[in-house]
């Protein structure tokens, strides 16, 4: 019976693991108040419920307490969404483009593949029947494209950030179509594609 513990050693182990309640109360009285703090006590203490304090105790403080959200929380281009505007949205398509040379096609030297990750620009084609080029009003942001004509309205959230100052647009009269070419903003290309 070497492997089995004696009754005496089991009772000693039980007493060690579950001390008397009287001992616990004495131990709790000896503990310093700072040791009784928990995760809810992190940060500055909350103001009493009757007081309204001017300074916020959190990192985020709303500027206008009656507002539902701040201007920083609204996505770019949301102010262009006018639900009361009766103009229809024209047909459009977005085509991803990449410049491919012979070294990419035959030798595979630049590690480009046909995926959209390797695309360097975006082409937006918008069909605008019965529209003249002089009627177009185009505003391009980093993630939003706003196109207005007397007959149509297009507010398009772009699928990828673009370089808003380096794009170009051309209106093709024969097809009554506007083509907008926007270079994509890819700050990590030097790491991903080298």
From TrEMBL:
It holds the Pfam family PIH1_CS. Transmembrane segments: none annotated. Residues 89-184 form the PIH1D1/2/3 CS-like domain. One of its GO terms (cellular component) is cytoplasm. GO terms for molecular function: dynein intermediate chain binding; protein-folding chaperone binding. Residues 17-59 are annotated as: Disordered. One of its GO terms (biological process) is flagellated sperm motility. PANTHER family: DYNEIN AXONEMAL ASSEMBLY FACTOR 6, TWISTER. Belongs to the PIH1 family. This is PIH1D1/2/3 CS-like domain-containing protein. It comes from Phoxinus phoxinus.
